[in-house]
Amino acid sequence: MTAGPGSPPATAGNDAGGHNTLTGIMFKIVSVAVFVGMQTCIKAAGTVPAGQIVFFRSFFAIFPIIAFLAFRKELGTAFTTNRPFNHIARGLVGVCAMGLGFFALTRLPLPEAITLNYAQPLLVVVFSSIFLGEAIRVYRWSAVAVGLVGVLIISWPELT
Predict the structure, then answer these.
(1) Could you tell me if 30 and 87 lie in one domain?
(2) Which of 69, 94, 109, 156 could hold 75 in an S-S bridge, CB 3.0 to 4.6 Å?
(3) Considering the entire predicted model, what is its pTM?
């Protein structure tokens, strides 16, 4: 595959579209490490209620978000929406999902909780088909089935 006119040449780190694959891989590794660290801290919190953990996680997360939006000069438009009820509903669903996830972390052993967390993308495919009517082809269904079998194998010692 050759690069088009005016685009940077494809190298080991860049694909033909100019995306830096190695940077993407690095961000994914950092993301996984940060989230595992967060989950470990939640587990170490012991008897702190999940609602308090959700509150403080959200409270301290808002400051970097506001700083990022201010840096990009998008702070003024960040809080405007044409669909306020959809925005509120999405926020409520997000807070409920975070709360239930954190509650599960406080009750499950950490390795099992992280394993189930990695099953989320597989469940998104299943639920998007059921609730949104998404057309899922057979190769994707087979990948979901293999992934769910893998999660079941990893979780099996805890299930018996």
Answers:
(1) yes
(2) 69
(3) 0.67
Domain total for the chain? Answer: 2
Neighbours of 100 (CB within 10 A): 12
* One-letter amino acid of 143: A
Q: Where does 1-119 have alpha helices with state H?
A: 21-44, 50-71, 84-107, 110-118
Host domain of residue 95: 15-108
**82-122: pLDDT as tens digits:** 999 999 999 999 999 999 888 888 888 877 777 777 888 89
The mean predicted confidence, pLDDT, of the chain is: 85
Rounded to 5°, angle at Cα 13 from 7 and 17: 30
Kindly state the tokens that stand for 121. 């993308």
Residue type, 28: K
Q: Which residue has the higher pLDDT, 49 or 158?
A: 49
Structural domain contains residue 134 = yes
Count of beta carbons in the 10 Å neighbourhood of residue 10: 14
